[in-house]
Sequence to fold (695 residues):
Amino acid sequence: MRKAEIVVAFFFVAIGIIAIVDAARVGFGWGPSGPESGFFPFYLGVGTLICSAVVLVKGFREPTAANLAAALEKMRRVVVTTAGGAAEERLRLLEAEAGRIAGKDRLIPEGGLKPILWVLLPSTGMVILTEFVGLHIAAATFLAFYMRAVGKIRWVTIALVSILLPVSLFIVFDKLFLIPLPTGLWGSKLIPF
Amino acid sequence: MIENLHHLLEGISIAIQPGNFLVAMIGLVLGVIVGVLPGLGGANGVAILIPLTVTMKPVPGIILLSSIYWGALYGGSITSILFNIPGEPWSVATTFDGYPLAKKGKAGKALVMAFLSHGVGAVLGVILLSFFAPIIAEFALKFGPAEIFSVMMLTFSAFVGLGGKSPTKTLISIFFGFILAAVGMDIVTGQLRMTFGSVELMGGFNFIVAVIGLFGLGEIFLTVEEGLKMEGISAKVTFKDIVEGSKELVLHWKTLLMGALIGCWMGLKPGGATPASFMAYGFAKQAAKNKAEFGQGASAGIIAPEAAAHAAGTSATLPMITLGIPGSPTMAVIMGGLMIFGLLPGPMLFKEHADFVWGLIGSCWVGNFVGLFIVLAFTPLFAAVLKIRFAILMPSIVYVCAIGAYAVNNRMIDIHYMIIFGVLGYLFKKLDYPLAPMVLALVLGDMAEAAMRQALIIGHGSPLIFFKPPIALPIMIAAIIIFFMPTISPLFKKKRPSVGPA
Fold:
């Protein structure tokens, strides 16, 4: 969590700098027709910088997992030397609990990244494919792929869903409401009606 | 007053014309489905369907959009009671007692209580809307740029002071939204800002695309990460349930009324529905004789938050149509829909398009009543939607989101933005950056900037113009007080311990 917090704060620092630099380019003072174009973005950029700096400082002050572990180890040694072996068992439990909490504190919980990538990458793939074959065909491919690879769903169901859904959406959007959806480079040739 | 009543009846008669009524029914059913499905909330559902309404006339178009919203509000309670999954943030409080009661085999009764409390909350909200909207609009006609800007300050400081999230992170969200809104052409001077020579960036960022990415894809990432556990309780709503549920409602009429009033009050402020539901739950628990019952399926624990959430959802329409300032992301999207019809929400809307405004208010009455019957009759069907395998639902939702994102402006780049906003939404949620203020800032960006610049021109560059009595000054003072609420309120608590609800 700490790392992600810092990275995202840096992202906002960058956004703030972009806003300020661009505001300086177009001018952020008082022009002939009132405030110049950069006036509003300039103060937005300054505000973003200040706030993200606060988040950054807070983030850096938070103890890292390594720091925490070292502190615990130190404590353990002190307690064991003063209280003896009986305390050691309880301390081990405590450490296990601390470890569990530290694990929970990750941005993405253990085993959580895989399913996210399984959504993110195929979706991105669908978008890229759309540039070539159009949205409906790309989506049909995406539907079939995800249902089979992740859901292990029967082929009959896969065929039904990945054909019926795009066809019905094609009819509703492209034909009934006359909202043309992206056809990509070759889409108009692939669906010639 | 009499005149308004006359307008209201006219509005209702517009809303029950066969064509409009059919549109409302379709919207409600779609809305409930959207509210039930993960990754598709009210804001998102409305956003995706906006392109469809472009081809419609304004009145049926807005009826469709708002009906989806009412439907989604109802849908949220179905998932929270039967599946223990709050479909919307303001349904979280309903899960505390709704799910335990459903587990005890009284799912039908729990649902009936939720729906009826929803109904009562909505009626109170709509009454507020019908009678106060014209008054506020009349008042708002006197607003100049400085006053408009001060109202916006009040809106955003409410997010900082009352939102309950970290004030710094809320501010970052707001600034980020405004910066995104500034990308593209400056409407006053025509200069290009933050485009870096890219043609794609010249078009700027559309907030509907942002909503679909942040709330749609972001929500899906969160859902798959947690590993979706759907342990639903199947339920039918029998006539006996309806009788039992209504009895409970009559028995807890005080709780019901209190919840609805809290909702109406909180709904006027941005982001009000969620805190309203929690507040109402807290008050109900405080007032109850048998506190141990709460969390085990107490009736009051369902009635209070549901009434509050729906009352807040309805009264949130008020600032949107009278001032042009939406209180929630869903309202922002509905407002975006209005702007696509070429209607600028704000006090002038009442003067120039009275038939439209009253048609909308009329459809609030009709939509909420009809919605009640639809959910009472078809709950098992809606719950069955969640029984569809997630591996089928998820890619279908992504597909529909992509259609929505593209169709807003017919730009391919928007689908790319949608994916990026999805990742951002996930990170925001995880790191506790609030999403709603960012979306509102993106929506109101151009308006806020124009108001500020005009006001400064009028005031010859002096920021004192924002503190001009009699209207701007009190609003600004209220904004400042609310902004510093997180700093002020602990001081109060120290002085007077044990007063007020926990």
In short: The first helix of chain B runs from residue 2 to 15. Chain B touches chain A through 59 residues (CB under 8 Å).
